[in-house]
Design brief:
Bound molecules: adenosine monophosphate, magnesium ion
Shape: globular
Order of helices and strands: HEHEEHHEEEEEHEEHHHEEHHHHHHHHH
Largest sheet: 6 strands, antiparallel
Strand order of the largest sheet: 1-7-8-10-9-3
Structural class: alpha+beta
Length: about 575
């Protein structure tokens, strides 16, 4: 094995650096930023101006302003997103920039709109959905030369609000704000979040869908992405046979966001679909790598850019369970559980393929695109697993069984996915690569000590009962032997380098800190009491999810037992 075989694979993303202070661009007040409105300018808008819920036809959006709120106040701000946009943190929690972010002020140059889209929800065509509470304010010219959309979620009613109120509660807004940023620092493609503003108004929600609605604090998140276009934007146009508008939207998205594919043509549309399939395959492999479960993979929540979007009742695997879903609405069917995410993504892409059929002359090209999804996911997931296990590849005889036995083992007793994989880094593999064992007897650890390395990953004592413990030890011994095969294949002279590179690869594939649901809940409860310290601490720690961080160990531990069944800490409803 050469050194190049040892470098981390392409599936482990470059984790973005938190900007160096010296590199910071000049930051301007939001009110002085340069805005653009290409979506509005280039695409057909709704000819009707009424802001009442209704079916919209022959349009990609409706122009609508946010509905002002009583007392907008800034609760949280993501400095790195501000820097990306060239916007400075508002000096005060109230004042003009916060009025913009709360929807009370539309700046000159902004042309706010709600997008029209439809979607398949839980496997069924749901007709028109659209931005029922999200309003894109404008696009902003960023210091890196790119344009990004600023979108307020919870900004009031639009023609797409159906019977709902156009608002969002603080708890779901905190969850979206925190998770978008956590995912970014994990290296998972995602929309971002700039600000979290409370509205000074209450919003009534039946959080448990049990007939007990309550008034909760309202909030608005300002989301940021190059585009919020979803599969559903195309589906609604295809469903209504608005094929000219469909083509215009496709051309706009390709020219703006996929210029490398060339001028729009039937062949370009096919390549574009293939690229969406590729990005979606990579995205889902990344979700699986970090144990993220989206929870509501309806086609209206699938980004055309391959970003994670619409953070609702998402969750992180604590006990490893392929069947686990964080969404209580999905508890029966488990359509959107952890292990189903790849097949659901493919099903959604198939719906997108149908929507794009009128653009592509050669329908077989769409089939090929779907095949690219399968290949991309398959390869990315295998490479990811190899990275997580610290193996050069999963191409060795017996590797598939090693992996499936591991999943069985983790599923048999409640095993924390994050802690288990991170814990594997401590398993000594012998020889010069032994960094955790006894230096006098390198590589050898007795059974008890070996199992003890992973003790923190288990939620119940059952894991340490004789049968289960011997299964774990048996698996670990096979794993060690397998890693040794890689070590032997590596150049002997480079044994130390082999060990270092292997551990580095594992470190980058196995986060130490993830946004466990109970942590978001703690941030919410503190903010409800006016205390921002919890959210601020989480934001800082989650900027470096792969690093050891002194003094933050408790945030890298198992979910505490009190959080097991506490509302908001495990499963959630869609109420938001
Ligand atoms: P979601 O489940 O959040 O992805 O939303 C599905 C659809 O319902 C989208 O069209 C949303 O805009 C709409 N929606 C969700 N919550 C609200 C709300 N409070 N007011 C208006 N529309 C909403
Ligand atoms: Mg949605």
């Amino acid at each position: 094995m050469t050194q190049s075989n040892l470098k981390h694979s392409d599936t482990v993303p470059e984790v973005p650096d938190v900007a160096d202070v010296a590199d910071l661009p000049e930051l301007a007040d939001l009110c002085d930023a340069q805005f653009d409105n290409s979506f509005v300018r280039e695409l057909p808008g709704d000819p009707v101006a009424h802001n009442v819920p209704r079916a919209v036809r022959d349009a990609c959006y409706t122009r609508v302003n946010p509905t002002p709120v009583r007392a907008p106040q800034l609760l949280a701000w993501a400095d790195p997103v501000g820097e990306l946009l060239g916007i400075s943190r508002p000096e005060s929690p109230v004042g003009p920039p916060v009025e913009v972010l709360g929807g009370n002020r539309v700046l000159p140059g902004m042309q706010p709109y709600a997008a029209r889209y439809g979607g398949h929800q839980f496997g069924h065509w749901a007709g028109q959905l659209g931005d029922g509470r999200a309003i894109t304010l404008s696009e902003i010219h960023c210091p890196d030369g790119k344009r990004r959309e600023l979108q307020l979620k919870g900004a009031g009613k639009t023609p797409y609000s159906r019977t709902a109120d156009g608002r969002a509660v603080l708890r779901s807004s905190v969850r979206e704000f925190l998770c978008s940023e956590a995912m970014h620092y994990l290296g998972v493609p995602t929309t971002r979040a700039l600000s979290l503003v409370t509205t000074g108004e209450t919003v009534v929600r039946d959080m448990f869908y049990d007939g007990h609605p309550k008034a909760e604090m309202g909030a608005i998140v300002c989301r940021v992405a190059p585009s919020f276009v979803r599969f559903g934007n195309f589906e609604i146009l295809a469903a209504h046979r608005e094929l000219e508008t469909l083509k215009r939207l496709a051309d706009y998205v390709i020219c703006e966001h996929f210029p490398e594919l060339g001028a729009p043509s039937p062949a370009t549309y096919a390549r574009w679909f293939e690229e969406i399939c590729r990005r979606t395959g990579t995205l889902v492999a990344q979700w699986m790598r970090v144990g993220f479960v989206h929870g509501v993979m309806n086609t209206d929540n699938m980004s055309i850019l391959g970003l994670t979007m619409d953070y609702g009742p998402y969750g992180w695997l604590e006990g490893f369970d392929l069947q686990w879903t964080p969404n209580t609405t999905d508890a029966q069917g488990r359509r959107y559980c952890f292990g189903n995410q790849p097949q659901i993504a493919e099903w959604n892409l198939t719906r997108l393929a149908s929507a794009l059929a009128s653009l592509v002359e050669d329908q077989a090209a769409l089939e090929r695109g779907l095949a690219v999804f399968g290949e991309t996911f398959h390869n990315a997931w295998r490479e990811t697993l190899a990275d997580k296990l610290g193996l050069a590849s999963l191409g060795h005889e017996g590797d598939d069984i090693l992996v499936s036995d591991l999943f069985d083992l983790m599923q048999q007793v409640e095993t924390d996915m994050t802690l288990f994989f991170r814990g594997l880094m401590a398993v000594p593999i012998g020889d010069a690569t032994d960094h955790a064992g006894n230096p006098d007897n390198p590589g050898h650890m007795d059974d008890g000590a070996l199992a003890g390395l992973l003790r923190r990953a288990f939620y119940t004592e059952q894991a340490f009962e004789a049968t289960q413990s011997s299964r774990l030890i048996g698996w670990l011994r096979r794993y060690i032997a397998r890693v040794r095969l890689d070590a032997e294949a590596a150049d002997k002279v480079n044994a130390v380098e082999f060990a270092n590179l292997r551990l580095e690869r594992m470190r980058r594939a196995n986060p130490k800190y993830v946004l466990r649901n109970y942590m978001a809940q703690q941030a919410i409860e503190a903010l409800e009491q006016g205390d921002a310290t919890v959210i601020t601490r989480l934001m800082e720690v989650l900027k470096h999810p792969y690093d050891e961080q002194l003094g933050q160990e408790e945030l890298a531990d198992r979910r505490p037992e009190w959080a097991r069944n506490k509302a908001g800490c495990s499963a959630l409803s869609c109420s938001s």
